Input
Amino acid sequence: MAVQEAISPGPSSLALSLLLALLYTSLESISGHSASLPPGCLTGLLRVSCQGLGLHTFPAVLPLTMEQLDLSHNHLQVLRDNAMEDRPNLRHLDLRGNRLEELSMGALLPLRWLQALILADNYLSRDYVSNSQALRLLGHLRLLDLSANLLDSDMAAFYVANLSSLWSLDLSNNLLTHLARGTFLGSPNLLDINLSDNYILQIEAGAFEGLLQLRELSLARNSLHCISDFSLRALWRLNLSSNALQLFATEEGNWGYQLQVLDLSHNQLRTVPMLSALRHLRHLNLSDNHLASLEPHAPPSPEGIGPLDQEVSRPNLAHSGSNPAASLPELADLDLSRNQLDAFPIGFLSHLSSLQRLSMAWNCLQNMSAPQPSPGLPRLPLRSLDLQGNWIQTFPSWLFEILPHLEVLDLGDNELRLFWRPEAGQDGPFQETRQPFSSAFRLKHLSLRRNRLRGLGPTQFAPAALFSLDLSGNTGLALVPSDLQGLQHSLHELSLRGNGMESTRLWLPCLWELRVLDLSGNKLANLPWTLNCSSYLRSLDLRKNLLQALDTEVLGGLGGRLGSVLIAGNPFHCCTLGWLAALASANVSVPDLEEAWCVYPDSEGGSWAPLTRDHTHLCAWWQWRGTQAGWVLLAVISLFLICCGVAALLQNSPKLPWALQLRRSWACTKREPENNQKTMGREGLGRPSLERRDPEQK
Output
């Protein structure tokens, strides 16, 4: 019965079969002329792609129900009359990257229902008058891409003269040098225009006249020097990046501008533009300019204040003046990176009641200090602060008093000092210790990477707050458990990458909630035993260390929740890979296992082999070789001990003098005469004594 149920199709399988049959029938009807398509064309339900096939003519036969046709990157030069039949369903035609020079009226008439036409990267500058007239037949066109066609300003004006249905226009990467008055009067329904990557030097008054619905405009990467009368009140997004702007100003008075995003990055601004009319502005990018101050009257730098005394001083808010940010109540994102700012602009920021993200990266900030403040510091709503790439040495604790909602703080690439010693280069007790993060009760992400930190000292962190901590790139860093005091039950991610730390310089406390730990790029010979406490650890990076094996006891204490381990770049011992089997049995992923190597010990410093290779036979040979060497060494030691014992016995024996005398007499009897007269005389003198002893011979 069960077998029959498994074989017989159910209602769901029957419905799926009918759906597949219907889809197959539909595809057959749609691509009924697919046999006439050029070889290599791909057909779909509503789309045909003949991209990059080297075609020289427009395909004569195409599916009737086709809505999208891709003929990009071929060799079409001319769209001739009667090149195709009517295509009432074709909505999108892509002809980019061809060699088009001519668009005839007869060719575009069958395509009069087109809504999107891509003509980028062609040669439509050669017959622009007739081409522009042909485009007027496309009464339903919504998107037109004429980028990279070598069009100058006059040619572009011809192409957009009478395209009243157009919503989106791309004229980027051409040769435009100016925009004349009334350039876009023939396209009053435009919503976005892309004029980037041209050579525009001048925009005449009224160039965008009549564009009451324009929402997005990009003039990036041109040669504009001044925008003195910005009047596009309906615009939402304006990109003026990578020009040579020294001035940006709106019309006088507040005329209800709707601008929300303004990009003025990569220009030559020396002062912050007066943007009081842009009350709906939410994102402002002023990065990569020449801004040296944001205050209308920058206070003089304090004299006689050393680097250790400046931490406790606070900003003076007495100088307010006419602040450029006084009327930006909706600004949420401000980018001031890569300028020349040398002070934290408390006065400027105090007027931005909705600011959430601030970047002052890669400026000239040294010490977050200023003269003694007036009473009543403002509370700023910042949640993210980027201060990387400055020269900050001291970080004030009062900053968290005015930034009570701060969650993300990046202090990477600075010269931060968290403690000082009596003399440089000498060990000793801390002379003065800062605890700048003790009041950061809402701080979740902190980066202290590449600050040349040698240690954190007794730096106190706010309890149950910090989520991730980045201490990477601090060569020579040493940690003791007290350095991370307060983070035992909050820290989820910890990075100690590239610190060159040895095992004796890494002492972590029990981090009970740790999920991600990066220990790569160090000199660790074994794992910290306190990892047993991190039962929630998911990811462990151990690349580029000095590990010969992984401690299975430490790994076993992780509670079986470890998901992945990175191990490449360690000198693992090929004959002690039991830990690798333990990882496999615990379903722990090793993504870089193919890149990991191990070493066989020998007299020449080791023989390397891929970790994934079967090492059974070689390890047996190395074990036998080690056993043979041990037996030889044992034999040598035994022989040495035997010789020493025999010598000791001979010295302590009472018969030793007799043995030595016997040895001398035996040696004398073995000598042979050598024609020495004196020796023979001595032998002759000895003979009478022997004769007297023998009476018979006498």
User: Anything to note?
Assistant: The first strand starts at residue 42 and ends at 43. The CA atoms of residues 500 and 522 lie 4 Å apart. Residues 40-141 form a domain with the Leucine-rich repeat, LRR (right-handed beta-alpha superhelix) fold (CATH 3.80.10.10). The radius of gyration is 43 Å.
